[in-house]
Amino acid sequence: MHKGGSPAYVAGAQKIRALRRSFFLALCLSAAAATAQPSDSTLNRRDATAWLNKIHKAAQRENYVGTLIYQRGSVMHASRIQHYSDLVHNEYERLETLDGKPREVLRQNDVVHSLIPEAKLVVVEKQEAKDRFPALLATNKNDVLDLYDMRKMPAERVAGMECEVFALEPHDAARYAVRLWAEKNSGLLMRAQTIGDGGKVLEQVAFSQVQIGVPSEKQHILGAIKNSSSWNRYEVTYQPTNIADEGWSIAVPLKGFQKIREVRRPLGELRAPAPGNARGQVFEVLQVVYSDGLTGLSVFIEPVSEQRVRREGVAALGATQVVVRRIADFWITVVGEVPASTVRQFATAVEYRPPKAVH
Fold first, then answer.
1. Residues contacting 301, CB < 8 A, separation 6+
2. What is the pLDDT of residue 205?
3. What is the CATH number of domain 45-224?
4. Which of 161, 218, 308, 318 is at a distance of 20 to 30 A from 177, taking alpha carbons?
5. pLDDT-above-90 percentage for the chain
């Protein structure tokens, strides 16, 4: 008789299958235990503040180079980043796109040079808020924790690095949840996700490869800035303004959002200078920026113009929501990485009363 048909063989095979089922069940239970969060995983305010500050400072003070992958909805693209800091915390950064048209952003402290090679054009502007990945906080205030609970989750590896994982869960529906992966030793942010309803990942940015603590090559960045000095140059200027003087008022409709900036600024498509049109399709708008410390939105106000065809409506891409409405002879555009209801409420809160003429 064939060995496979013997009672002993059948019994043995059944035992092996039972062991496999038990092993598989144990794996499932282990996975469930890893994803389940104990009730005491919420960090106290001191520890949560310490981690948020550590993550934010690491982005500014560590030397690191790596590849970033951005995902917004179904759109993905990659960039190469180099960042260096010196003993007095001057920052030097280079960000190069790896997809689409070549683009390069060079930063020395708060002065940003955006290079558009095919036009031999460099756009220079001051960057006030240092809240782009892997930096974190849009303001220096620690009242983020008045609006979010911060929970510690099981540790994971990202880009080969051991990371602490945190979930920031909002107290209300006016903002999204956020998930953060921070390298255990330095605190450098390895991955950040914006989470929508049902735990859906709306947007994320992460290192796919990174080296931390590398020797500084800031001279290469300074050299690249110098080499672009012969290109066509356009300086973006932000003029502080008071929108109330121009008849506008915005009653902040939701708790936690603070106005952090009111400016008059250029906006639009910059391209190679042409006779009589040295600035491309650039126009001036009023911009009011709001932040809750972790995320934010902007309200743009621009006059109706025949050169720019607009229409009222809504749009969304990943976590970013947009509402456009018309008030009198102005277009109001509200853009933010917040739920659609938040953007709509801000758009509705914008009011206009024409200022009285001064005689």
1. 243, 248, 285, 286, 287, 288, 330, 331, 332, 350
2. 97
3. 2.50.20.10
4. 161
5. 72
